[in-house]
Input
Amino acid sequence: MTDSALNIARTLLDLEPDVLLLCLAHVGASGLGHLVAVNKFFAILCAEHSSHTPFLASTVASGLGAAHAALEPQCRSAPSVGLFFSSEPLCSGRRSKTFSAELTRMAKRLPASAHMIGCNTHRIVTTQRDAVQSGGGDKKVALQLGHFPEATIGSFTLCPEDACKLGWDPDDLEDEP
Output
């Protein structure tokens, strides 16, 4: 072996940080989660990568677990916000227990700081190219995950007093019987 061959990087830690950051662009959120646990250097690199990597990914699927599995490879960094819509009952009935279990599994796989918003809807409607399709069949859940490093994301609620200040009818905020 020659001296020049000995100078070749032998481990990932021998590579320049900028080269490693380029490599992280192809790892995805799940891989980044594993790399963070390797050592402090990789944790810092992953944080740096995430601070400059916005993304938004969406899908429609038969269930929340399937939707999350479809989106996970598209997540270029850990999601900080998510929206989900379900045509299945979230809070009552036999199917809600299954959905609740799926929701719990997905929540455990997301960062604790991620903001998730979800609701029931009568029907899932999708758009593909120039067509609008009314979700029937097995398309029961729409899920969107994203990360926007420059944005500050927070949760809020509108109470009747806030609605009045905005000129809205507070009765519009009430749940239907």
The first helix runs from residue 3 to 6. The radius of gyration is 22 Å.
